[in-house]
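Pipeline run #58 for the internal structure catalog. This entry was flagged by the ingest filter as a single-chain record with no existing model, so it goes straight to prediction. Upstream metadata was stripped on purpose; only the residue string is passed forward. Reviewer on rotation: M.T. Logging verbosity set to normal.
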Amino acid sequence: MKVDETVIDRSAEEGARYVALALLADGDGAAARLAAGGDDEALHDFRVALRRLRSTLRAFRPWLKGSVERKMEKRLRRLAHATNDARDAQVQLQWIGEQRHALGRRQRVAVEYLSERLETRRSAWAREQARVLARYGRASHKLFERLQTYRGRIDASARSNTYGSALAGGMAEIWRAPKLSQRRQCAPSPDMRSRRSRAARRRPRTALAHPRTFPEPPPTDR
C-alpha cells in the first residue's frame, strides 16, 4: 500500500482523522462489493477494513477525542463479530473443496455432512448480510461526519505532537506489550505462545496499514 508521506508531518489530531477517513473509505468500498455479490474476497476485505479502522480508532483515541466515542468503537466491534460465522464457514468450505480429491469414500460421507452444516451457516449470513451492511452504513455515515472537523488551540503551549511521533510512540508500546504480558504469565502452553506470537506480529502490520489513497484533509474548526 502507498503511504502519503505528508501525513507523518501533520498534527496527531489531523493525521489520525486523515488516516481514519481513508480506512473508512476502504470499508465503504468493501461493503459495496459485498452488497453487489459475486466477489469471494469481499467479506474478507470488509473484515480487514473493519479491523484496521478499529485498531486506528483505538490506538489514536487520545487524539480523536471529541470525534469518536467508545460507543462507536463498540458498534464497529459488534459489526465485525456479526461476520464471524460467515467467514469461518467460507474458509472451511474452501478448505474442504481443496481436500476432496484426496478423501476416501467414508471420509467423503463425513465431509458431505460437515459441508451441509457449513452451507446452512453461510445461508444464514446471506439473510443477515443486508441488515449488517445497513448497520455499517449508518455507523460509517456518522463516523465520516464526526471525523471531518475537530477543535484545536493555536497557542504554542498547546502545540500538538505530529502524527509521525504519535505513531512511533504507539509502535513502541505495541512491541513492548507482548514482552510485559509474557512476564506476567506462568509458563503458557506452546499453542498459547504460538497464538500470542501471531497476534503480536499482526499488531504492527495493522498499525502501519495505511490505505493506497487519502481523501482531502479535514478542515480545522478553530
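catalog note: DSSP finds seven helices and no strands in the chain.
catalog note: The radius of gyration is 21 Å.
status: ready for reviewer M.T.
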